[in-house]
Amino acid sequence: MKIRKHLLAFFAMLLLGTSTIMGGCATTGMDRSVKTSNSIRDVDTEIRKMMVQIDVTAASLDSLVMPGQSNLKKSFDTYSDNVAKLDSEGKRVLKRTDEMKSNSKEYFGEWEKQGDAFTNAEIRELSTERRNKLAESYARVPAASSGIKGTYNAYLTDLKEIQKFLSTDLTPKGIEAITPVAQKSVQDLDALKASLVPVITALDEIKGELYTKKK
Fold first, then answer.
1. Number of domains in the chain
2. Alpha helices in 117-147 (DSSP H)
3. Cα–Cα distance for residue pair 145/168, rounded to 1 Å
4. Which secondary structure element, helix H or strand E, spans residue 202, and what is its range?
C-alpha cells in the first residue's frame, strides 16, 4: 500500500514537472510572438508619424525663406520646433526598426526549434511553410530601410545647419543667402519621405499575412 502511494506521488510529481516545462515553452513562444507583433505595430506607427513630420518641417522651411516675411522670429521658431520634432521622430523610427529586427530574429529562431519538434509531418510542414513565408516578409523591412539611417542623418544635419546659420543672421539678406540651400533641403526631405514608402509597403505585407483573412 505504501509502495503504491509512493508510486502515485512520484508520477504526480513527474506529470506536474512536465506540464510546467511545457507551459514555460509555450509562454516563451507566445511572449516572443506578442513582442514581435508589437514591434511591427510600433515601427508602422512611428514611420507614419515621421512622414507627417517631414511634410510639416518642409512646409515650415518653405515658409521661413518666403520673401517679405512680416515676422521672421516667429517663422524661425516654428521651423526650429519642427526640426526638433523630426529629430525625435527619426530616432524613434531607427530604434523601432532595430528592435523589430532583433525581436524577429529571436522569434523565428524559437519558431524553428518548436517546428522541428512536431511529430505530425503535416503540422511540421505547415509550420515550416508559415515560418518561411513570414520570415521572407519580415526580411523586407530591414532591407527596405537599410539606407534610411544615413540619408536621414545627412538631411537632418543640413536642416540643423540652416537653423544655426539663421540663428546668427536672421535678416532678409540672411534669408536670401540661405534660400538656395533651403530649397534643396526641401527637395531632399521629399526624397527622404519617398524612401520610407517601401518600408510601409513591406509592413503592410506583413500585416496582411498576420491579420487579413484571405478569400
1. 1
2. 121-145
3. 36
4. helix 172-211
The answer to whether position 21 is within a domain reads: no
Closest CA to 142 of 93, 210, 189: 93
Residue 49 and residue 91: Cα distance in Å, rounded?
Answer: 12
CATH label of the domain that carries residue 49: 1.20.120
DSSP string, 57-85: HHHHHHHHTSTT-S-HHHHHHHHHHHHHH
User: From first to last of its 215 residues, what are the pLDDT tens digits of the chain?
Assistant: 544 444 334 333 333 333 333 344 444 556 656 666 677 778 888 889 999 999 999 999 999 999 887 899 999 999 999 999 999 999 988 888 777 777 667 667 777 666 667 777 787 788 778 777 777 777 777 777 777 888 888 899 999 999 999 999 999 999 999 999 999 998 888 888 888 888 888 888 887 777 655 54
pTM here? 0.72
Q: Which residue has the cell 506529470?
A: 15
Cα 102 from chain centre: 11
Q: How many Cβ atoms are within 10 Å of 55's Cβ, its own excluded?
A: 13
Residue 117: domain span:
35-211
User: Rg of the Cα trace of the chain?
Assistant: 27
Residue 116 lies in a domain: yes
> Cell triple for residue 213?
483573412
Domain assignment of residue 24, yes or no: no
**Residue 79 lies inside a defined structural domain of this protein:** yes
Answer for the pair 175, 64: CB distance below 8 angstroms, yes or no: yes
72: exposed, middle or buried (Cβ count in 10 Å: 0-12, 13-18, 19+): middle
